[in-house]
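Predict the 3D structure for this chain.
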Amino acid sequence: MTKPKAKTVNDLSRCLDPLDMDATLIAVVEMSQSSWLVGGIVPGVERQPLKKLAIDEHALLSLLNRWRAEAEKNGHRITRIAVAFEAGHDGFWLARWLAAQGIEAHVIHASSVDARTSPGQDRSARHRASQARLSRLAAR
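Done. Predicted structure below.
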């Protein structure tokens, strides 16, 4: 008597690639019509960097490479770069471009991101809110 084959479930909510925090550079991009705000979790770097960029994919790639170099200078070999951002005006072309550069891109539907900031908040409050969103996205 043969054992029935287990049914394979295509559960896209689960990541099949384990997250190695010591070898993965994680970046989240907040996109607006005038600039991109990029936050990162860089292995071996105590601070969580935050950088405002012009809308330029090459500047984003340079920033990611700089953060990779910082991590490697601190003894962490980066084997994976994951970038997440909301689907929007620039979302899908950027995802295709990043994938062509060998960078893992995660396009997130805007309604799944908690954005409790208001335009009247000061810069430090917006920074804390951005870092909280970055941490929540990295925990996924």
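The longest helix spans residues 57-73.
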